[in-house]
Amino acid sequence: MIIKDRRWLDEDFIPSKLLFRDDQVRELEYTRQIVIDQQAQGSNQIYANASDVLLLGGPGTGKTALLRDMLAKGRNFLARSPNTNSKIAYIDCSKFSNERSFWVNLSSEIGVYYTSTTSLDQIKADALNAIKDNSLLLLLDEVDVLIIENPETFDTITNLMSREQGVTLCAAANRKDWRKSLGEKNTFNPRTINCPEYNSHQLNELAIDRLFYALNVDYGDLDKLNDLILSAAIEIIAIRAFRIGGDARKLIKMLRLAVERAEMKNIIKITEQEAQFACAQIDDDAQQLHDSLMSKSHDVHVVLLATHELNNFDRNRSRDEDDGIRSLEIVSKYQEFIQISDPTEEPLKYRSIMDLLQKLLTEGLINRMRAKARGNVWYYEINEDYFQGEEIVKQLDKICPKCQLLVNDKLIAF
Question: How many other β-carbons are positioned within 10 Å of the β-carbon of residue 104?
């Protein structure tokens, strides 16, 4: 067996040392020390809190690792100082769907008892009561998911927390436009810490670091490491990870796929062939999009094309910051495209198209954001965190003859 310690080839494993994130670790450590350490050291403050912080960067740029590193350090400190009036809590905002889920998660993190029959109001009151006697460092991962999908819940949570002395929020987000769905009166105004994409050299070093531990090679002995995996193979994987957004999680996944491929074939040394196999598996994400679109109706295809085309138009026009693409615009563009691509087909009505949009939201192909100053108004866009709109158009041009008519007539922009 080549792999000696599989943890190091797991995307979710957080090492004790985060490479190329020294500045971010230093800034977060300053926040943690203010909120937690000062209380344990007998600070004269009744509550210790710092300014809220937001880690901002694309997928695979180390945001979750930074938060979980901060969580581990905070818990270790509190374990050594059990009588301090400080708490630290971590919540993954992508894993709960409503306000009750948030308060249940928070209660579990800070040691508040509840049952399945406890009302939301009671859970919330008990959690807030526990917070009143402590400084709380609340870590919110994937916070942009919550802001976009449940903006009212996020507004309620942050506005309640802002009234409690000693609560500091430290969040992480992928999207630069995370503010678009915040309510007018939302009080969340964090200091931003940027997490830039890793460059190809950094990804190469990250790969080597992981492999030393995973393959149980003396740290720093590149000759021994090269006996197990060619440097050219590592470079292939690092370059591919760089080309798809400097994504360290994808890098680690490809390393694992390459090593497991070698194990399966009883190969002692990992070569460029195994690296290329791993890269091809990552490329299968495009195949998954192809398969997903193949299984959908032409109406779904046209809704996606309409949304993409309106997004392009929206980006190019002169407009107010709060403008965006509304559902009625999508319906109108859909009906226009249906008449061109299949004149014999009767277009779906508004309610049916809204059902399709909801399904696409659930699948992650489309995002929606709440308008700031227009009440219950939502804006829609292709979710380019996963696939560029142009890639969806290209796939539909290949698989759907009716969509080809729209593309060939230059009605859809690549």
Answer: 19
Q: What whole-number distance in Å separates Cα of residue 399 and Cα of residue 294? A: 7
Reply yes or no on domain 21-194 having CATH 3.40.50.300: yes
The architecture (CATH level 2) of 200-284 comes to Orthogonal Bundle (1.10)
C-alpha closest to that of 55 among 40, 65, 47: 65
C-alpha to C-alpha distances, 267 to 211, 279, 413, nearest whole angstrom: 16, 18, 47
pTM of the shown model = 0.72
On whether the CB atoms of residues 359 and 297 are closer than 8 A, the answer is: no
**What is the mean pLDDT of the segment spanning 58-68?**
95
Sequence spans of domains, the chain: 21-194, 200-284, 296-408
Cα(146)–Cα(134) distance, integer angstroms = 25
- What does pLDDT average to over the chain? 86
Of the candidates 209, 277, 210, 271, the one whose C-alpha atom is nearest the C-alpha of residue 240 is 277
**Is the confidence at residue 195, as pLDDT, over 90?**
yes
Report whether pLDDT(20) > 60.
Answer: yes
φ, ψ for residue 319 (rounded to 5)? -155, 165
Angle formed at CA 262 by CA 256 and CA 266, multiple of 5 degrees:
145
Higher pLDDT, 414 or 81: 81
Q: Per-residue b/e over 291-316, b at no fewer than 16 CB within 10 Å?
A: eebeebebbbbbbbbbbbbbbbeeee
Class for the domain spanning 296-408: mainly alpha
Quote the pLDDT of residue 319.
Answer: 47
pLDDT at 176: 82
- Given its phi and psi angles, is residue 111 left (phi above 0), alpha (psi -120 to 50 degrees) or beta? left
Q: Tens of pLDDT along 43-56?
A: 545 445 578 999 99
Q: How far is CA 224 from CA 134, 267, 273, in A?
A: 51, 16, 20
Question: Do 200-284 and 21-194 fall under one CATH topology?
Answer: no
* pLDDT for the residue 42: 53
